[in-house]
Amino acid sequence: MAAVRRGQGPLNLDLPSSPVNPDFPPISALFLIYFDIKAGYTIGWKRSLPGVELEGVVEYKSLPSGLHTVKEDLIYFVNDNHAGLSAFINAPAAEESRNARMIAVGVMVPLSYGRLGRSWKHADKLKEMASELIHDTTKTEILEEFWEESKAQGATPAADTESITSPTSINFKPVRTAPGKAKGHTRNRSASDGAALLPPGQHLSAYHPAWSLPSLLEKFGPLIFPIHRAALLRKRILITAHAPVQETCNFVYDISVLSNIPLAVSDLLSPSAPPQRLRPLFSIGVHDIPLLEEDLRIAKAAATTPGSETTEERDEPGSGWIACTTDSILAMKSKLYDVLITMPPQYSENAAEKIWPKIESPQGIELRATQRDLRRYKALRWGISRHVSLPASPAVRHGSSDGQELDTRRASSSGTSAPAHDPMLDLPDTDDIIEPLSWAALAYSGFMWWASAGEQRVHSEEESEADAALLSGLALSPSTPHTSIRPRSQSNISTGAKNAPEENNAMQEMAIIAYFHRLTTQILTTISNIVDATDSDDEREDDLQPLQSGVEGSQEEERSEPPVYISSTDMERMGLDVWSSTDHHFVVEVCHEYFGRRAHIEGHNVDVCGIRIC
To answer: Is the pLDDT of residue 369 over 80?
Structure first.
């Protein structure tokens, strides 16, 4: 088993092991909240284990602003070492009750059972109890009975015991490891690959947040890639949206999972690298502002003491987070976040033009996807829509001839590439979310067309093959709907998901997770190889130089970690945009955060007779 690094958590979907009931995690608290026209949201009934605080917590966390506009909702939140889930119902009432009766029934589950404590396992029961109590909140016998059946007994399990950490899965090796120094032990598999996340006989439960992954891709489109990169850098990401919040909470879970650092590359990173997963806070509100301010203080303190001792906490404060909110005032607290995502209102789905989410920096600068992101998203969208089992990745096929490997690469490319006129690749209204082509890119493209159209065609084929390799070997279940990348409507998830067919083992969702983990592996492995090659060259130079002392000797330590140089070919190998300054800045930050190195990015250049034209 790999060594546990700072903030290391489960790298995949959390699956049950052996709590009190194998199917449901034990709960630490159960509560009923109702709306009082004089006192506001009030706890009407509660039970909890010693040390679990409810007063002044669950009233606000489990009932975010704006819920009065919806009939029902599921809300996920986190408080200390527990995850919470509440089922909200809003029903018509008499005029003296302001024409509405609103209640919520919720639970608290230890986070030691996973990213959300697998609290979604209780969603169906919570909705059932809320539907009964909405008519009479005094009939709390069902709450007493549920508490006695489900409360935790004894100590909770240690962290990471509820996740699969050493699965057998499809091999994936995006680039060949450079000879020379080896970092830790070598692996060519990722715990994120589709077959590893759900072993035979396991199924996602009806309310599992991962069911929303296809909807995540549809809602964000190519913007999912800059969000993925921000999550990899462990930025503080705040998503603002309107009620209902269930889908947005699911997106928080999804992005946190997609940005996990796979086990295959964890040993390649610096010991001071960020945590292996992004900390999900789920639904937050104005009452969580002190928590965010404390997180900011810890982050600043850590930045001023880079040599401080690391910890092995599950979700280390000050190392980035992702959360969602319906309180617009949080968006005004620009010092508390690094990336602000504004979701369009639900009614915009019927608009004549596609309304995309808006991604901004704290300074209000809009972040866009690159031209490379757009092409990669089209390839991903096409590959998922084809719902075929692609051949194994050519990088791990052993014992085959060069010709056979080439045939495999071509077959893989054709399986996930579509002709340019295919309607599946028509994405409407993307001008506002995609970076425009730079003048340098236009000049280079025009020169390549004039000088060598054949070379340009080869480059396009290589890019298509690289995109196809990320999806190769991932079987997509035909039982999952594939008419588009929307799996099921959110209403189906919230009301009728319990009737989902057992044979649907979420292979499409698993393939999406594996795709992004492979993309992460591709980026980090490429940079790791460059760092190794740079260190090897520097060691050879040191062997040729005579030993020196004094001031020159004091400079030797600084010279021991020289900057790394990233070429345009390296950028292409990582699947990034050669011409995008935002992608250049991303690589510089990755080198600093994950490898502790400075980086210089070399752009694409064209020289004619010794004169640089672009």
So the answer is: yes
